[in-house]
Here is the input.
Amino acid sequence: MSSQRLLLFDIDGTLIRTAGAGKMAMERAYMDVFGKTDGLQSISMMGRMDPSILREALKNHHIPWTPEREHVFRRTYFGIIKEEIAKPRDGKKLCPGVLPLLKALQSESRFVLGLLTGNWEYSGRVKLEYFGINDFFPFGAFAEDSLYREDLVPAALNRYHEQYGNYIPDKNVYVIGDTPLDIQCAKPHGVKTIAVATGFHSSEDLADHHPDYVFENLHSTPDVLKIFE
Here is the structure.
């Protein structure tokens, strides 16, 4: 169906702001499992894959990575993120315009919505469920798919094909995110990029990485929909 548009949304900083709930949950899990405080203190998390963040933290503490260690950490983190996301925090919110935009997109059959995120699927969906928007996204690509963000676009396209039974041209696929890494992971695959300055990067910073479109936020649904006319 060549007229269909596939929109792949990042989660943190693009759809929602957790005001540090995710990082705090990871810090607590790291302490519980490995006995180290501030295990992620010096690690950049924006746009990163969760397994990659964990591996860097382990390396910083000279702890060898093993599948078993990652499994225990992940299981612990999944329990803690449910607690942390529910705590009151200044700045915890849906990003501007997200809910009206998602409703508008869902109402038109030409749009298919998915996720493209560095979160593990369970924890990413816990965050989205808290804000009431998880059900907008029937599938996606997640941290389980690869250590490398550039592998997520092919993973998402494979899931689209599995779910809908057809292929979609690259020009009809859009990756929507708030970091340079969101832009960079899409470029090798010839899909389009929409950068949104609702995270920690300004629109000027994002524009330096040459996305197809840049928005300060998603507040104006009509302006976003114009892209797809």
